[in-house]
Structures are given as C-alpha cells and as structure tokens.
Design goal:
The structure holds two protein chains of two kinds. By secondary structure, chain A is α/β, with parallel strands linked by helices. In chain A, 35% of the residues lie in helices and 24% in strands. Chain A has a single domain, classed as P-loop containing nucleotide triphosphate hydrolases (Rossmann fold). In chain A, helix 5 links the parallel strand 6 and strand 7. Classes of the chains: A alpha/beta, B mainly alpha. At the A-B interface, strand 5 and helix 2 of A face helix 5 and helix 6 of B.
C-alpha cells in the first residue's frame, strides 16, 4: 500500500497526513464523525462515497481550508507543498495567462521567469492558443485544465482534487485523468474524490470509502474492487444503497 | 443670451456661446467632485475590502455606522467641516474655509461612507467565491485586498459613479464650507440656488440642464468602458 515515489527527484519522503478522531459539526449536525485516517506514500488515493458522505469536507480538512471541530489533522513531518483543484474551478477575472502568472507571483517566482513558465504550462495542458482569452469565458473543460495548469506550476508534493470531472464531458474527463497521471508520474501524491466507480478503477492505488460522515473502508484499490471487506463496500460497488 | 426666456434655449445658448463664467463654474464643479471621489476612493476601496478580510471586535458596528452614514445629510457634513476649518476650529490655522479645498474635504466625507459600504458589499460577494482558492494558493490577506478589488472592478466602477453622482449633485455641504463666492467657490449647484433665489428661474433651470447633461455624459462614458470590459473579460 505504501509505494515509493517513482521519480528520483522526489525520492525524499513526503510527510504522511494523519487524521486522528476528526469530527466536524455544523449547527449541531455531525458531518464527519470520529474519522481516523492516514494517507502516505506517493500513491493515488481516491475517496469515494455517495453524495453527502463528507468527501469534500475531508478534502478541505486535509488541505487545511477548514479546522475540525475536534480531533487533529497533522502532517507527520515537514508540511509539503500542496495544491487543490476544485469541482468548479475558481478562476480570476483575468486572462488565462494572467491567472497562471498570478499563482507564480504568489509562489514567489521572480518576475522575469513567470511568463515563460506560464506559457510552458499552458502548452503542456493544450491551452497555448487560449493564453490571452479571459479565463471566465473558457469552456468547462478548458477551465478545469487551466486550474490543473495552475496547480502544475505550484509543483505540489500533494495534489488534492475534489470531484474534478463531475461536470465535464468524456473528452474533458480524459484530459483531466491524464493530467492526474502526469502529476503522479512527476512524484506527486494524489488525493481525489470521485463518485465514479470506473474512474476510481482507472486511477486508484488506494481507496477510502466514506458514508454519512464515517469511514467505512480504507484499502488498496485491488482489494477494494475484488474483495471488499465490508458489506457497505460490497453494496456500494453493486450500486445498491443499503444504508 | 436670447430674448426667449426658455430654459432649454438658455442652456443651449450658455453652452454654444462658450460662456466664460459658465465654464469656470462647470470646471470648478468637476474639479471639486472628481478630486473628492478620487480621495474617497483611495481611502474607501481598501477600507471596504479590509472590512471583509479582517474580523475584529466591533466590525458589525462599523458596518452599521457606514451604512447609516450613506444617508448623511450634506448640510450636516458641511457643518462638521465648517466647525473644523473655521478660524476658531482645530484646523483653523490653515485658512481653508471658503476655498475649493474645503469643498473637496466636505464632499469627500459625504461620499466616503457610500464608497466604503458599497465596496464592502461587492468585495464580500467575490470573496465568498474566491476564498478557498486564494487560501489554497497561499495568498495572504494583505495580498487578497488588491486581488479582490481588481477582480471586482466592474462593480466598483458603479460604486465610484454613485459617489460621483452624490458629490456633484449635493449643494448643502459646498454652500456652507465654500460660501458660493463668485469666481472662487461657485459651483453648478450653488449657482442654481443663487439664481433661483434671485428669481432668475430660466437661468437656474438652464444651469440645471447643463449639470444633468454633464453627469449623463460621465455616466455614459463609464458605462461604455464597463460594458466593453465586461464583454471582453466575461
């Protein structure tokens, strides 16, 4: 389950992320309860579960956008460089190119290097001819690729993706999945949510199954798809809703 | 001036004859109001954004106060500035009373709450959309401020226009602190008040039409710029 990073450049270990007895409450409602989970190594973890299971919440907690009501979320070691790609890409009201140079500026890249790096990233994600186009008038698939290009420039050690393909057509989904594989090949740990079983089969090394704010199962993808340990997981795989 | 005492004719004649006194008045009106808007924007835009980005005790009170001050009567703002700048007042030694500078200060105080409060509303909406992404990128709050203001720019043009409209239309504040001195502090609105009280209603109305035309022109310009940018940037 704990694969080493594939590239020698990132051979140094990325700190494991440990969630210990994490709960999140909002207005008296428990959205996540008593979740203990450790995500480590350089694999692709896919968080699955029905709508409202708490997948997005888990991503926001892990990325540090949200503090738990109780329990702890901690990196066991140096906090790695992270990036997150959201379900609906949030792009600034500027050109595609400016969206990327902005991220580089925030990252602290010297001014004279930003443009070249940004153009290279646009090219890498097949957006080179859209550089001057306002980001907000791009199609959904192009916007998501731009969000991936922005994440690419941040050179994250851990990349979180929250349902990155749920609003896209098949061609755009394929582009996003290829990008995820690209990131992984570069030595980035992937943590993504999905409710698409086929996508999880294609991408996952490791599966986390949530339901109603509880951790049901955390196993290697092979085991999960061939011989799930819990009845809930078996039902989920068959597309039944036993809960 | 023509013999026909019709307000439209008078307005037209004033403009077409390039009436020097009129141009002085119009020029001063624009200079005072545009300076006031610029200064109020320099303070009000960051202030509105800061109210969104930083939580501090009493923030709710500040927001309520700003909203209430949007309805501040111009004469009250004028009176306040008058008391500050008059010879016996705390800022009396600068001798600013009855100068265009005093009018700028009064109008700025009048529209600062408008610009700050409306900016806060615009930025708050955008911040709700951007918050997670900016935090994810590791953007500091100080840096979020220019980012949010720039990305809210289309809405903020309207905010600045609202401020300019209020500044150029008010008469109470500039009358009190400016004094309507011919050639020095006389602006469109105070000239209209004067002509009305002298009974020269057609001239007053003519001046009013010129004022309306000017404000319309400026608004049309800003609208076109905004629409063009909106269409191009989505």
């Amino acid at each position: 389950m704990n694969q080493p990073c594939p590239l020698p450049t990132t051979a140094r270990d990325i700190a494991p992320l440990a969630l210990v007895s994490v709960s999140v409450e909002h207005r008296g409602q428990r959205l996540l309860s008593d979740l203990t989970l450790r995500i480590e190594g350089c694999q692709r973890t896919v968080v699955m579960g029905p709508n409202g299971a708490g997948k997005s919440l888990l991503m926001r907690l892990a990325h540090g956008l949200l503090a738990p009501s109780s329990g702890s979320v901690a990196w066991l070691g140096a906090t790695p460089r992270q990036a997150m790609v959201f379900q609906r890409p949030v792009l600034l009201r500027r050109s595609a190119l400016d969206n990327l140079t902005y991220a580089l500026a925030v990252k602290g890249t010297p001014r004279h290097r930003r443009r070249g790096l940004a153009l290279a990233a646009l090219d890498h994600f097949g957006l080179a001819n859209l550089a001057k186009r306002p980001a907000r008038v791009l199609s959904g698939g192009e916007q998501q690729r731009l969000a991936l290009a922005r994440a690419w420039l941040l050179e994250p050690e851990v990349l979180f993706l929250d349902e990155p393909t749920s609003a896209l057509d098949p061609a755009a989904i394929k582009a996003v999945e290829e990008a995820v594989i690209d990131f992984h090949r570069r030595g980035t740990r992937i943590v993504m949510t999905s409710h698409d079983l086929h996508q999880a089969r294609r991408l996952a090394d490791d599966v986390v199954l949530l339901n109603a704010g509880r951790l049901i199962e955390h196993t290697a993808a092979k085991t999960f798809f061939q011989a799930p340990r819990t009845a809930e997981a078996r039902a989920f795989l068959k597309g039944e809703r036993v809960w | 001036m023509t013999g026909d005492p019709n307000a439209f004719h008078i307005a037209l004649a004033l403009v077409l004859n390039l009436d020097a006194a009129l141009f002085d008045i119009v020029g001063l009106s624009l200079r005072v109001s545009l300076t006031a808007v610029t200064l109020a924007a320099l303070i009000g835009l960051p202030m509105g954004a800061a109210l969104v980005l930083w939580a501090f005790p009493g923030r709710g009170g500040v927001i309520v106060l700003l909203n209430a001050l949007m309805g501040l009567p111009p004469v009250v703002a004028g009176l306040g500035v008058y008391l500050l700048l008059s010879r016996a007042g705390p800022l009396g030694q600068f001798g600013l009373l009855f100068t265009p500078s005093a009018m700028v200060v009064a109008q700025m105080l009048l529209i600062l709450p408008i610009i700050a409060a409306l900016t806060r509303q615009q930025v708050e909406e955008l911040h709700g959309e951007y918050r997670d992404q900016l935090q994810s990128l590791g953007v500091s709050r100080l840096r979020m401020m220019p980012t949010l203001l720039w990305d809210a720019r289309f809405g903020l043009i309207t905010v600045l226009l609202a401020g300019f409209g209020r500044a150029s239309a008010e008469v109470g504040a500039v009358m009190i602190v400016g004094g309507n001195i011919e050639g020095v502090t006389r602006v469109m609105t105070t000239a209209i008040v004067l002509e009305t009280s002298k009974g020269n209603l057609p001239l007053a109305l003519g001046l009013g039409l010129v004022l309306l035309g000017l404000v319309t022109l400026i608004n049309a310009g800003a609208y076109l710029v905004g629409e063009f940018a909106r269409r191009r940037l989505g």
